Amino acid sequence: MSIQVPFLNLRAINAQYQKELEKAAQRVIQSGWYLCGAELESFEAEFAAYCQTQYCVGVANGLDALTLTLQAWLEMGKLSKGDEVLVPANTYIASIMAISKNGLIPILVEPNPETFNIDVNMMAAHLTKRVKAVMVVHLYGQMSDMEAICAFSKENQLLVIEDAAQSHGATINGKKAGSFGEAAGFSFYPGKNLGALGDAGAITTDDAELAEVLRALRNYGSHERYKNLYLGSNSRLDEIQAAFLKVKLTYLDDEIASRRSIAQRYSTKINNPLVVLPKVENEESHVWHLFVVQLEHRNALQRHLQEHGVQCLIHYPIAPHHQEAYSELKGLKLPVSEALHNTVLSLPIDPTMSDSQVELVVKAVNSFTL
Amino acid sequence: MSIQVPFLNLRAINAQYQKELEKAAQRVIQSGWYLCGAELESFEAEFAAYCQTQYCVGVANGLDALTLTLQAWLEMGKLSKGDEVLVPANTYIASIMAISKNGLIPILVEPNPETFNIDVNMMAAHLTKRVKAVMVVHLYGQMSDMEAICAFSKENQLLVIEDAAQSHGATINGKKAGSFGEAAGFSFYPGKNLGALGDAGAITTDDAELAEVLRALRNYGSHERYKNLYLGSNSRLDEIQAAFLKVKLTYLDDEIASRRSIAQRYSTKINNPLVVLPKVENEESHVWHLFVVQLEHRNALQRHLQEHGVQCLIHYPIAPHHQEAYSELKGLKLPVSEALHNTVLSLPIDPTMSDSQVELVVKAVNSFTL
Ligand SMILES: Cc1ncc(COP(=O)(O)O)c(/C=N/[C@@H]2[C@@H](O)[C@@H](OP(=O)(O)OP(=O)(O)OC[C@H]3O[C@@H](n4cc(C)c(=O)[nH]c4=O)C[C@@H]3O)O[C@H](C)[C@H]2O)c1O
Ligand SMILES: Cc1ncc(COP(=O)(O)O)c(/C=N/[C@@H]2[C@@H](O)[C@@H](OP(=O)(O)OP(=O)(O)OC[C@H]3O[C@@H](n4cc(C)c(=O)[nH]c4=O)C[C@@H]3O)O[C@H](C)[C@H]2O)c1O
């Protein structure tokens, strides 16, 4: 059957803002200034304000946002090579790569199978003197238990970095994702809730020194033209992408509201006993980047939905510790994560979905039998 | 005095193609596909054809083009951590960083002070069993002596990577920059002869396996969605930048012709005995990314020109081994390089310069006295 409900209709999402996006592009093309200029500066200010942080540093993508933050802490003497960093075992592999690429050691921590997020009790179980930081991932758009995690980290003098790639705009008691840790990495990959029209990312923080080091690290390690202090990277957020992001940021809260409305309809109307729906502790803490159900017969449901024109994805089919890139971790036993990787399925969720498309997904899921 | 001749008038350069660039942007915005799609694929094919190579792999920038190529050779077992790589001592620091960032050791080799490029005789002086590769940089737009370098490298089983960031379109006997080494890294930084409207870069090569590994490395180490073979990076060339580059590639040869014409006028008309003009062995081997003169009183000339409304830059004021990022190299004695860093000055060279602007520069340089 042809696709009735695409997993994510990015073309339709951006078509809503077509005129504004074209104007933004035109403005940047004409300006003659394409990197680290006024567009980036104003986007950084707007995104920092949105996230309730003092600083925002734009970089080339979400992986770099995490990688450069950890490198900055190494340069600042807050971390040393070989230090251990707690990170959830079930996340997009980029979170873990950011740790390894800096010569730090990722310690994979099992998640809570109901929230998909890092289990604070399990964090305690992995605590040794070698652990110096924790990277929490607000997976699928739902915030981790930041109050418990921050208390635990403070008690044990751990740095906290939030991987907020999937959770722009989520809040706990009115406090935004990206404002809890010492720093947070965001991705603006096109498919994210706040997506550029190409690769982009950012770090939010209240730490002025960290922001300053990051501004050098993204620019060949240079604060000042032709002076290089660090072995840096080239990781800049293009002016044209900053201009696009400024447009899209103004619609982010509306898009989150649409996502929440779809999630609510899924949650109330999907009643197939084979399918476990996602649990949400707190409405405002979830921005529904993904709507992820669990079931033993995940592959069969994906085929069934495909036959009904509904496109699904799996986030993610292979656990990081089973990837070839992490052969040194393959001996780990992480039963909760491993089970999740075998049972999760992401239903389409997209602010431009029509009511009838939502109905179609609900019906297709409910009609699934073994 | 106000600026009469800017160093590089990127706004004017891109204004020539305004309509086409806006159309390209519009096409990509509307497409709904922003990464690793049809625009990139066709740009890669066109740029490979332009460079006379089998493959082109687009990446996020020039530094990554070099860094990922060396990483690919590490992954392929062609290099090992700790191997030494010969590289010119006077280059933009990114060339050297690409080596260090991979755990390889840069061996800084003095240039020929007349061509600014790596001195083949000095390469031989640094040859030990630990040296496994050479990175040549075609500085300022002029090709290195590739016949001698390739012969030397073949004899000594060294891999050759060309840093062609400044030399798109230069040729030796009709053979293009980027087609001599096992691989070449290009930058499409906006100010380059072929410049995007943001960051972009590429690798050219005839090695199918290398191209394949690079395609994974730029994409989180993944050839196939959700399967990660390497600790890769996120280093993609955005669709919108690929679309811009396709427009600009069609004008590259015209722009090179304009640059050559300006260089020729500078070379014939500047006759200030204090100023040493760049030496060119072969017209076609120089694409005049920069027009670099040498003189003892470089700073005084820069001020003098500034007073006459002529904007100059210095490429580069500080030698890489004197940068704080390379404190471990600060003991090196590299007199040729050090002298160059104190004596070079880049005059404006830009395909949109008017005849009267060229005259103004010539007059201003010729009127300089001590
Ligand atoms: C927790 C966490 N930390 C760090 C990161 C790293 O951030 P990054 O470096 O910015 O990628 C991620 C990234 N995370 C994502 C990851 O979740 C995964 O996301 P995905 O949903 O599998 O993405 P996808 O399938 O490529 O796109 C989703 C849909 O959108 C459609 N699409 C896509 C594109 C690009 C398009 O142009 N047009 C389209 O129509 C195709 C699909 O239907 O893969 C991406 C490459 C990563 O950026 C993360 O989740
Ligand atoms: C040999 C070699 N290897 C690897 C690399 C690394 O490649 P990369 O990672 O792609 O940078 C380089 C990069 N090389 C260049 C390097 O040569 C240097 O170039 P530069 O001439 O000093 O550049 P600039 O002063 O920023 O810009 C030149 C002029 O253009 C104006 N301009 C600039 C921009 C960006 C704009 O939007 N609008 C403008 O009007 C301002 C200036 O008048 O610094 C850059 C950041 C590097 O990309 C290299 O030379």
From TrEMBL, chains A, B:
Keyword Coiled coil: no
Pfam short name (any one): DegT_DnrJ_EryC1
Annotated keywords: Pyridoxal phosphate
Matching Gene3D superfamilies: Aspartate Aminotransferase, domain 1, Type I PLP-dependent aspartate aminotransferase-like (Major domain)
Family: Belongs to the DegT/DnrJ/EryC1 family.
Protein name: Aminotransferase
Origin species: Pseudoalteromonas aurantia 208
